[in-house]
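Submission checklist for the structure archive. All mandatory fields must be present; incomplete records are returned to the submitter.

[x] Identifier: Protein YIP
[x] Organism: Lachancea fermentati
[x] Residue count: 242
[x] Sequence attached
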Amino acid sequence: MAFYNQANNNGPTGFYQPSPQFQFPQGSMSFNQPAATTTNPAFAQEPLPSGLLNALSTKGYSHELPLLEELGINFSHIATKTKIVLQPIQSTSALPTEIMGDCDLAGPLIFCLLFGTFLLMAGKVHFGYIYGVALFGTVSLHILLKLMGGEQKQQQTQLQFLRTASILGYCFLPLCFLALAGVFHSLDNTIGYSLALMFVCWCTWSSSGFFTTVLQLHNTRVLVAYPLVIFYSVFALMAIFV
């Protein structure tokens, strides 16, 4: 009965009427917060493209970024880095900053899979060795190159782990040609040793050019190339010997 009388005192409808001093919480559940669809009515009224092909594609609203761009995959950067590796004489100092700072790993993963597939076609199952040596070598080289670069104060000269893995992976491409040659002919001879030496030097020259540009090191390319030769030589031995 007391509760009924209190409800009647609050108003004719029987519901509780808050006092003027009462304020609703200004959080995510606030009543005066506008709806998400009313902030930009143009986006809310824009229809999605219809059809079976559009349903299976990655198309969305026009104001949204493409799916590959959201994932950080830029085909123009991939093509540019691949061209630099295929043309080792070309200087890397003229490359834009966004390309040098790109940490894309799509290209390196493709090259590692190609290398392992070519070895498999030659009767060598070395996928576990490839991934293990690549991971251990990337971590070791990243630590060593950071020590060689010293205490870099500028943001653009900081060497990140993904950037190290990206450079090492892109410069791994010439070894795929060596593994492809091993599919058609045995490399355990003088010709195979010569090809392996040439492709290892190719990988080393390209990767050392990238690292000296990123770390802004001068007159130290031979010093940077020494651990890189050892890294790529391990993969060359996989392609030569059974």
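[x] Structure attached
Curator remark: The CA atoms of residues 49 and 60 lie 8 Å apart. The chain is about 60% helix and 0% strand.
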